[in-house]
Amino acid sequence: MNTPATGNGGPVIRARGLTKRFGELTAVDHVDLAIARGQVYGFLGPNGSGKSTTLRMLCGLLTPTSGEVEVLGLRIPEQAEALKRRIGYMTQKFSLYEDLTVLENLQFLAAVHDLPRALAKQRVDEMIERYHFGDRRQQLAGTMSGGQKQRLALAGSVLHEPELLLLDEPTSAVDPESRRDFWANLFELADAGTTLLVSTHYMDEAERCHRLAILESGRLVADDTPQALCAALPGRVWRIRVTQTRVAEAVLRGHPGVLGVAQIGTDLRVLADNAIDEATLRRLIPNTEQVVIDTVTPNLEDVFVAATRLSRAEAA
Known about the structure:
With 316 residues, this protein is an alpha/beta fold. It folds into 2 domains: 37-61 and 80-225, Rossmann fold, CATH 3.40.50; 234-297, Alpha-Beta Plaits (2-Layer Sandwich), CATH 3.30.70.100. The protein contains 11 helices and 14 strands. The chain has helices at residues 51-58, 80-84, 102-112, 117-130, 146-158, 176-191, 203-208, 226-231, 245-253, 278-284, 300-315; strands at residues 13-22, 25-35, 40-44, 66-71, 74-76, 87-91, 164-168, 195-200, 211-216, 219-224, 236-241, 258-264, 267-272, 292-296. The strands form 3 sheets. The protein has a 6-stranded mixed sheet with strand order 6-7-8-3-9-10, with helices on both faces. It has a 4-stranded antiparallel sheet with strand order 2-1-4-5. The protein is globular and about 75 Å long. Mean pLDDT is 91; it is low at 1-8.
């Protein structure tokens, strides 16, 4: 695994052998991480892959079964209480008070973080302006749209200017336009020096990250920049156009050298190992005289399919 350079005395987050078990279930299995300051670092994986559990251990909300964790120079979980003042945490579920106004929610959070009165007023005003709540200061949080609630939750998470912000699938309940705006806000924070950890199951969000960890059944199966992961894909990606699309898909799925098949419009996108060439594909597919086959550039979904498929094969 490559370790990102920081230029600031080492990684902001370092984990070695991070493991969490719940009875017989291993939710996180010997994960190693090194995360640089100012990065937007993504955790990509399906539900149950260990993303949320990993985030909760990194911020001290869960105690690891084994392994070592250091965050912002603090040992976790031993110094988790000191860490709380230096991080922000945002979950996919809206966690502010729906019966309080935008202003009241932010004022309450300022009090929770024990900000001095003058600084609290300054920061609340800054958040209202930055996240476009100027005309909604007195609106009850419970009456806002999903995207507005998300912006308010983000404003609350960074009110105390944390060095590290952890976001657990924060855009799962909002529309595409709100997701785009939300990510623009995240990059503004990263540009200002905040380190961000974002868990997601959206491929387009994963592609935005500076660096990406792919988790499968609690194990780290890939860790690099999205571009490097695509370049290092073990195999090739083919685009196939054939008259009997569904028949061809069924045949290809049954071949051991084919790692994944997806229908995109009228085409099939096929991820296969390097032993499969165009001639092999033509032999496999019915009505070969009507087949058009091309190689295409791998994307992050191809990487995800390959990494998780290989991980399952190794675990079997």
